[in-house]
Write a structure and sequence with these properties.
Elements lengths: L1 E7 L6 E7 L4 H5 E4 L3 E7 L3 H12 L4 H9 L8 E7 L4 E5 L8 E5 L2 E5 L6 H11 L6 H14 L9 E7 L5 E7 L5 H21 L14
Length: 221
């Protein structure tokens, strides 16, 4: 009942994840990322530990494919899960269990993975991937928003979307963008509205925040 995108921008090295679903608060448990490490979407019968543990593996140098295979080995219900991973180098990997709600599947390309279940059909992911690949000149947050919009317009979740999330990290440890629509009759319209406010009012503030290079870590860290 969710479709999602994990992606890395080859121009800026930004890492991001976005998702939309027919239930509330998709961003809370499905969307995960760490700056300079990678991003993971965990969905279907969600197991957040697939994302938490996968990100720890990526931090230690695992590739997206290696992290995916290792976390799936820990889950006895892997056929109910769906996972998408992108690592800091643009490697991608995805899993769609055989018992996820149809239509279900995933598509992978360098720097991008899209995955979904309870979709109108494969065209949802095809249009999402196309939108991502055709907008590489844009910033990653806007690309992710447009990717979700394209998937929704292609049919999206068969029961219609109620929530959406766009999460992007740049080089800093805090997020560059974190937009969440937790429950809305028209979440894509609300996401577009919030994105424009973010561009105008929030992004300039975030870009002016202290940088890690300016803030020494406390002793022992």
């Amino acid at each position: 009942m969710t479709f999602s995108i994990v992606a890395r921008c080859r121009r800026t090295q930004q890492i991001g994840v976005a998702a939309a679903t027919g239930t509330q608060s998709v961003g809370k448990l499905s969307c995960h990322a760490i700056a300079n490490v990678g991003a993971i979407a965990s969905q279907a019968m969600t197991n957040p530990y697939l994302a938490y543990d996968g990100l720890r593996l990526l931090e230690r140098g695992a590739t997206a494919e290696d992290a995916l295979q290792r976390v799936l080995q820990t889950d006895a219900a892997m056929q109910n899960r769906q996972v998408g991973i992108v690592d800091r180098f643009g490697g991608t990997a995805a899993w769609t269990g055989l018992e996820t709600i149809l239509w279900a599947g995933h598509l992978n390309a360098p720097n991008i993975s899209v995955q979904g279940n309870r979709l109108a059909g494969p065209e949802v992911l095809e249009r999402t991937m196309q939108a991502m690949q055709e907008t590489e000149h844009l910033d990653l947050a806007e690309r992710l928003m447009l990717g979700l919009q394209a998937g929704t317009e292609a049919g999206g979740d068969r029961q219609a979307e109620r929530s959406a999330n766009v999460l992007v990290f740049g080089l800093e440890e805090y997020p560059l963008c974190d937009l969440r629509i937790d429950d809305h009759d028209s979440p894509m319209e609300e996401l577009r509205r919030l994105f424009r406010l973010y561009e105008e009012e929030i992004l300039p503030v975030v870009l002016a925040l202290p940088k890690r290079s300016e803030i020494p870590r406390p002793d022992g860290m």
